[in-house]
Amino acid sequence: MTNHEEPNLIRLMESMEKHGQKEAGEVFSKENPIEESADIKGKFEWAKKACAFLDENFDDETVKAIRMDCACGPQIEWIQSVKDAYDASTGPEDFVEKTNALNLGYWLEYDGTSFYLMYPQCYCDFVNQVEDTLPKAWCYCTLGYTKKMFAYVLGKEVEVELIKSVKMGDKECRIKITEKV
């Protein structure tokens, strides 16, 4: 029996529909269901299949857009604590210092024009318990997560770029965040 209520599958299908790929989403879902009894390895294998399907059927920009839009949302408590740090800051460097002092499991850097969000490990509950790599397509969701969070915190649109990813074999996840001009 398959679980059509699995949040990752639902978000993927909704995002594919949003990007004009509803039929492709239905085909993928039918051919690659997530079993109700799937353990973490089964979920990881499903993630690999989802990436392969996306990479084989769409260009990188479309894959990125689909995955960014199917990201889970940051917890409002975390976002608000970072927003409070930003609002209380005297500038970007002070914001970085205040945010890093919150010990939220990630840290920030600032290079004079962009922020860099770094994670020491993969926090994606769906795949982080398996010691194996995934294609870049999987990690594009963290760009969606980061974009939502920093657009809210900074109060303006931001551009995000995946620089490094633990699931791609790097020692950390690193996302560049630049305010849109």
Could you provide a short overview of the structure?
Helices cover 50% and strands 13% of the residues. It is globular, with a radius of gyration of 17 Å.
Set down the secondary structure blueprint.
Blueprint: H1 7-18, H2 22-31, H3 40-57, H4 60-69, H5 76-87, H6 92-101, E1 107-110, E2 115-119, H7 136-154, E3 158-164, E4 173-179
Antiparallel strand pairs: 1-2, 2-4, 3-4
Helix pairs in contact: 1-2, 1-4, 4-7, 5-6, 5-7
Description of the molecule:
By secondary structure, this protein is α+β, with helices and mostly antiparallel strands. It folds into two domains: 7-69; 76-179. It is 50% helix and 13% strand. It has seven helices and four strands; from the N terminus they run H-H-H-H-H-H-E-E-H-E-E. It has helices spanning 7-18, 22-31, 40-57, 60-69, 76-87, 92-101, 136-154, and strands at residues 107-110, 115-119, 158-164, 173-179. A four-stranded antiparallel beta sheet has the order 1-2-4-3. A hairpin with a 4-residue loop joins strand 1 and strand 2 (115-119). Helix 1 packs across helix 4 and helix 5 crosses helix 6 (92-101). The longest helix has 19 residues, at 136-154. It is globular, with a radius of gyration of 17 Å. The mean pLDDT is 93.
| DSSP helical segment count | 7
Rg result = 17 Å
- Please identify the structural class as seen in this structure: alpha+beta
Chain-averaged pLDDT = 93
Q: Kindly estimate the percentage of residues that lie in beta strands according to DSSP.
A: 5-15%
The H-and-E topology, N to C, reads as HHHHHHEEHEE
Please estimate the helix content.
40-55%
**Which outline best applies?**
globular
Uncertain stretches of 5 or more adjacent residues: none
